Amino acid sequence: MIILLFVFFIIFTFYTSCIQFEFPVYRVVVDPGHGGKALLPKDYHGDRFDMLSMKYKDIFREGAKYRQYYEHIYTYEIAVRVEKILQLTLPDGDFKKFCSIVQKYTNKPFERVCIQSFVSRQPSLNSQMLHKDPNAPYRLFDSFFPDGTLQEGRISYINSLHPHMVVSIHFSLNASRYYRGMNAVIAAPYNFLYKGLQYLQGNGGNRSFFYNSNYADWFTETEDKSSFFWYCNDVMMYFLGYRMTSNYQPDIEAFRGYRYNMVQWMYNDPPGWAHIAKYHPAKTAYADDIKQFEPDNAFFNREQSTFEKYRRDGGYEGYGGDNLYASNEIIRYVLYNLYMHGVRHKEQRLAPPYISIWSIPLHVNAINAYMELGYLARPYTRYILDNHLDDMAEGIAAGIYSLFAGIEVSSKISCAPYGKKIDLKKYTINNNNNYFTIVR
């Protein structure tokens, strides 16, 4: 009897192993935007905890809201639907059911892959729920309790999963006509940010490098200043951690911290860095004088790597790298699915991307598809949320799958996806590691 049980165990183990590794396996984190509450005071309820001042450098951002429409609720509802669909691709899932979804896009055969999916946060708290630290499960960055214990933020959690892709889902309140639709959100590549550093140091010539680039459509915080000003402000924060004054100098009263040291990954500065950084020594990455700054540490070495070029520059779209392509491609799948369900509207389009130094695109090694999927103050977006939430989730899930496997879309309508999978082999480091696994 013992021998029979042993033989059965060996056969069962072999069988399940064959199922598990029969097809390529990819890890995806679906990151629904926001959650938590924008409570005061910031020192107790904020985000972006700075080890130099031991304070939060930012308010907690709970997301957009319009009447009874809350961004943090709808992003979570979409995320859990996407996760449920992707689970159909696993060995113990219902792949036939998944195929029935994909067949809405193509009548051609496609590669079989398995996608392990995770959601980055819990359901959102509502205003009636009280907790000593209600934002703890939702912060992007790490925080420290009064007893000195570390509470990992969502970015650190994402990095602990070593994902190949992070899909960030957001809605905004409103936008100009230029941006209305669905938008990618991308971080500019290092070489473009470095040109800004050279300009601020007096070594970069005129501003033509900015206006002649694919990244000149920079995110503007307010309309009273130019896109070039906001670009330089972001360059200052990216390299020095300071916001910029109106005369293009570091605002010493507006230090925002070193974000790359606010998450858990392999690009943190060595232990004890804060004791050095508080003096802001010249000719280091901690300098507070723009002309004395030198980008020389693990994070800035990472930023100059070929892998970050793949993620953030060039690529199928001509710029923006795999991040922009993944974002735009998933949006195209969503638009395609809505179109096939008879939805038509002038705001049903792939709109221009938002370009800046956004936190998640910068602080993960995964390909980051970060998307603003609509504007809550716009009737069209509210109509989609009320009537086509499942269709949006299906489009996102199909887009994710296509980015790993490739799906040749049948109908050649104007919003049709390209159907090209991303070449992940270029992120290989050696036989045992790739850029996604070394992140933490």
Describe the overall structure:
This protein has one domain: Aminopeptidase, CATH 3.40.630. Residues 1-21 have low confidence and may be disordered. Helix content is 35%, strand content 15%. With 440 residues, the chain is α/β, with parallel strands linked by helices. The protein has 15 helices and 14 strands. It starts with a helix and ends in a 35-residue tail after the last helix.
Brief account:
This protein is of the alpha/beta class and 440 residues long. The chain has helices spanning 2-21, 42-45, 71-86, 95-102, 154-160, 190-200, 208-211, 227-240, 273-277, 298-303, 306-312, 321-340, 359-362, 379-387, 389-405, and strands at residues 25-32, 47-50, 55-58, 65-66, 69-70, 114-119, 143-144, 150-151, 165-172, 183-187, 242-244, 250-255, 354-356, 367-375.
List the helices and strands and how they pair.
Layout: H1 2-21, E1 25-32, H2 42-45, E2 47-50, E3 55-58, E4 65-66, E5 69-70, H3 71-86, H4 95-102, E6 114-119, E7 143-144, E8 150-151, H5 154-160, E9 165-172, E10 183-187, H6 190-200, H7 208-211, H8 227-240, E11 242-244, E12 250-255, H9 273-277, H10 298-303, H11 306-312, H12 321-340, E13 354-356, H13 359-362, E14 367-375, H14 379-387, H15 389-405
Parallel strand pairs: 1-6, 1-9, 9-14, 10-13
Antiparallel strand pairs: 2-3, 4-5, 7-8, 10-14, 11-12
